[in-house]
Amino acid sequence: MAGTSKTTDAPAPRVLTRAADENLGEFEQRVRRRPGLGGAAACLVILIVVMNFLANGLDGFWGRGVVVVGLLIVITWGYVWFRRVRGGLYLFSEGFVDAAGRRVVSVAWSQIRSIEGQKTQFAIGSLPAGSAFAYEVAFTSRVGDHEVVWRLNTTYSDVMGLAKLISRRAGVPVTGLTNPYQL
After folding, report:
1. Which residues does 106 contact at the CB level (< 8 Å), separation at least 6?
2. Does residue 165 sit in helix, strand or coil?
3. b/e string for 143-167 if b means 16 or more Cβ within 10 A?
4. Measured in whole angstroms, how far is the alpha carbon of residue 167 from the centre of its chain?
5. How far apart are CA 178 and CA 165, in angstroms?
6. Which residues contact residue 163 at a Cβ distance below 8 angstroms, ignoring those fewer than 6 apart?
7. What is the pLDDT of residues 85-123, one digit of tens each?
8. By C-alpha distance, which of 98, 118, 100 is closest to 108?
9. pLDDT score of 19
């Protein structure tokens, strides 16, 4: 699977601790998260506006405000982006741990009840504006014994291969839309 383990992809101590607490077995591979290009494009536009204000002078309150707020947005997005792509989905012999930022979620293969592919279409008025594809993995929570749904979207490298791997290991078929390029 593309974008998976290398020798430098060892899990963080908090991931290993969670996996040990949940008895998920030995670490096998990491599936990286890809950076969101939409956010990067938005930050580029904000940076262009900020640079325009800096190049043409900061006349008045609004000019300074735009520069300060714009730089705060870009710095915050950069921080969140780096925290997010440093995480990933870590596959173990008996389940997986998904870590991004401070969030850590662990799921054993035996807890998984269903995997469903879904595509969402976005529109502005009646004009198509894009779509998003994700697999929803439903599993039984160990706390409270209720069903929880976890979304694996296209920020994971090779999300289709990941869904097939989880399906095979959990013994649960992938239902719904299985190809993001289908209509």
Report:
1. 18, 19, 21, 22, 24, 95, 96, 97, 98
2. helix
3. eeeeebebebeebbbbbbebbbbbb
4. 19
5. 13
6. 115, 117, 135, 152, 174, 178
7. 677 889 999 999 988 878 888 899 999 999 998 888 778
8. 98
9. 92
Q: pTM (2 decimals)? A: 0.71
Residue 37: both structure tokens together: 């290009």
CB 46 within 8 A of CB 35: no
Decide: 154 and 143 in contact? Cβ < 8 Å. no
Assigned token pair, 154? 């296209």
Q: Does residue 31 contact residue 4 with C-beta atoms inside 8 Å?
A: yes
Strand order, beta sheet including 174-176: 147-153, 127-140, 112-124, 174-176
Residue with tokens 């956010």: 39
Structure tokens of 74? 């870009």
- Mean pLDDT, the chain, rounded, equals 81
Q: How many CB atoms lie within 10 A of CB 24?
A: 23
Question: What is the DSSP-derived secondary structure letter of residue 145?
Answer: S
Q: From CA 116, how far away is CA 84, in angstroms rounded?
A: 24
59-63, 74-78, 95-99: least confidently modelled range: 59-63
Q: Which two tokens stand for residue 163?
A: 């869904």
Q: Which of 38-42, 81-85, 171-175 has the lowest mean pLDDT?
A: 81-85
